[in-house]
Amino acid sequence: MQSIKALALLAFGLLCAPATQAEPLKIRMSYIQPVSNWATMLFQTPGLARHLNQSYTFEALRFQGTPLLVQALAANEIEIGNFSFSAFPIAVANAGLSDLRIIADEIQDGVPGYFTDQFVVLKDSPIKSVDDLKGQVLGTNVAGSGTDIPLRAMLLKHNLKDKVNVTIVEFPSSATLPMLLEHKVALRVMVMPDYADPKLRNPVRPLFTQADAMGITQLGMWVARASVIEKNRAALVDFLEDALRQERWYYDPANHKAATEIASKVTKAPPEQFDSWLFKKNGADGDYYRDLNGKPNIEAVQSNVDDMVKLGFLKSRIEVNRYVDLSLVAEAVKRLP
Description:
Elements: H1 2-16, E1 25-31, E2 56-62, H2 69-74, E3 81-83, H3 87-93, E4 100-109, E5 118-122, E6 137-140, H4 148-157, E7 167-170, H5 176-181, E8 188-190, H6 198-201, E9 204-209, H7 210-214, E10 217-225, H8 226-251, H9 256-267, H10 272-275, H11 298-311, H12 327-334
Parallel strand pairs: 1-2, 6-7
Antiparallel strand pairs: 3-10, 4-10, 5-8, 5-9
């Protein structure tokens, strides 16, 4: 009898016990370029990430280019990819990832008054115009990336094509200056923060910009799978709230010195290298545009996708609006002052 009572009491206790707290969502997020991509700058400011290690954990993973994110998301190796305008439609149309959703802004290139990627040649190069690139070897990081497509778009405007009038080769961003100085390539794109580094910038001059080639491009946007959103909506809203709070902190002029020191820690470059441009609106001498409410430029994405159809990277047009879910970031914004 005593054993029966004991079992009954144990069962009652289990029923009344509080539910076990769910494990935090593990958010693995990609980045390509340190500092310019938010993944490297988030969670460097104590006290601003109020939900970190509670509803979610965070890990930043580096990739050579945005096309590589397609297979990572398909294999559920990352929860959020910082897709370029170019990698996103390829993932949807070519890889069949129809459940991808654009959830937030990261970087926009070519917004008036802000930085746009620079396609450069050596200062002493005889190349004075895009037409002079005929017969030359040109460098890119990854075919189909957010800087590769503008290069090809500009070439097309001048009736130049890869493997016909020019040769485009892939190599890591870190090899930008050596490849130019050794005359292995005649042209290479320079992004921030590389363009702000005097050692990299002084030997070169711009031939054209990404904005010249394609206008405004959604160079980076956060993308997640619909299934991940459905299962983890609350945690993702918490993450976006924390991310936007940190982004706004970085853009506060009162925090500029601290921001340069964080950028220095991330890149191992001196903080002075970031002082004149980081998070500033100053044209080619400033930073990219970022929407501090996390709202991407969907009209620009659609225009970018249409250009990719013209270039032959996509067989048919996709309607970008079908793959957008900005409800999470909208909810996150409401929580902020």
